[in-house]
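Entry 14. Two folds queued back to back today. First construct below, sequence then structure tokens.
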Amino acid sequence: MASLTIPYVHLRLLTLLVLLLAPHPGSSSWETDEAPPNSLPVRRKPLNGLPGRSEAEYHVVVGYGTPAQNLTVGFNTGADGATLLRCKPSGAAWNAPSFDPSQSSSIAQVPCESPDCPLKTCSEPSCTATAVAKNGTVLSSITVVTDVLTLSPSIPTTMDNFRANCLEMGTRAFGSSSGILDLSRDIHSLASQAPLSSNAVAFSYCLPSIRGAPGFLAIGAPRPERNVTYTALRSNSALPNTYLVRLDGLGVSDGGPDIPIPAGDALIALRTSFTCLQPETYAALREQFRARMSRYPLAPPMGFLDTCYDLTGLRSIYVPTVTLRFAGGLRLDLDIRQTMYFGRSENPFSMGCLAFTALPAWAFPPGVAVIIGSLAQESTEVLYDVRGEKVWFVPGRCPSRMQPIEL
């Protein structure tokens, strides 16, 4: 076993282990090797095979109710305007921890006629909806409630009357977690209810690149220095709750020809692992990437990832930098773990595939030309100023302490 600290530069040489983020000079108002104050630790769950679109890969622990019941939940920036929680009696059926409304002294049910009831149809007097099969079997049951949300485990930070959809029966793609925390642009989301401050943004996160590495989710995160470049959030009436930006182009290593992006916005996604491009864009990226990786033997596709290499037995790997160029001058240089996917082993000296994929144009949401997946965002602090309509991608702001990987 060996460990090595490698800075993020334009072209990386990975030797024996994993690369870590180096401090980014002049970009931070807090220590770069620690998470922001009062942030929640983010953990990455073990993956079995290719990650998909359903289960959350990153989790935090929050409290809900009085006294607080600790729950492990995923978080999502593209939610449909609702924080979802497993609630008893569903926990026993799902074999996962769940929130017990009967044990909270501060819980309140949202009335059916309230404007805060998001359900199109509900049963009086509470905001409740039940789906029943023809034979009378209850398929699902949701009750919308408000209660106290506790965020920080060290210095408790609470939000009163935080709305959640209590899923009491039925199935939902939570994986092994107890729910999904809504960070969308919806007015009821945690992002929209973050405290107002001129020195803070709504939230930020750093997604850990491997199991055992630290990450964080910070509500009311420190605002970046003024000299740090941002890109503007864009609006789409068909996708009002999502975070959209303009991606002007892609590049592969310094000096390579720029790859144009078709008309449309880029959607920042957390529950899609790989970055999705339209076929012509992906074909251009794949051609440039393969040309610079020609020294390594090609390997069979891994699922829908079709640009794969057999790196078994090597002691060093040269991987070209893929750069995302956003409107406003912001650029994000992807390192080896943001550019390539190494499967279950997380060992770079094994099978590795380009972590981009092609989707037909009709498969994208209306007005969207690119989906920026979670792997491209790992080990980079992504900051969201929801009210100011800005997004930053800042390398060097994530915790650098981690557990080494066994090779």
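Second construct, same run, same settings:
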Amino acid sequence: MMAATSQLQGNASLISVTSKYVAPSDPSLPALALQITSLVGSYMIWVGVTNQPPESVQNAACSGALCRDWACAMPAPPGHAGFGPATSLFRSSSSDVSFSMAQRLARRFHRQIFLSVDVPATLLSTPRGSHLLFDAEKGIVTALNNLGDEHGQEVS
């Protein structure tokens, strides 16, 4: 997984943007790009298919669609098991994968998650679509664990 990180001027310690390339686990699947914006107590994550080479992964989000399938999830309050509140912000009739994935990520990382999944419906409807989504979630978990390690934050 290749990464590129930048920090926004003025709030360098509060906001950072990281781009990561996720190679496909199956040669018949496309590569994925992640763009993670670390905010105070939350992550804004875009994941989508890309034709960009690993060294240009930071450009992938510019050609993607933020609102193809977008959800927000909160972690459950301390001491409560299960999932916290969540909502779809934008979705299509062909895809609603960001909702459940955002819930799982919020539960795991104890942070608010804004998640945009930009995977064409034509890929999701194939038998390999679930593998691509698994690769996406696995790549996000790895990237968030690495971000937590870099910033000295505890992650679950």
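Quick look at the second one. The mean pLDDT is 85. The beta strands are 2-7, 16-22, 31-39, 42-50, 70-73, 86-90, 112-118.
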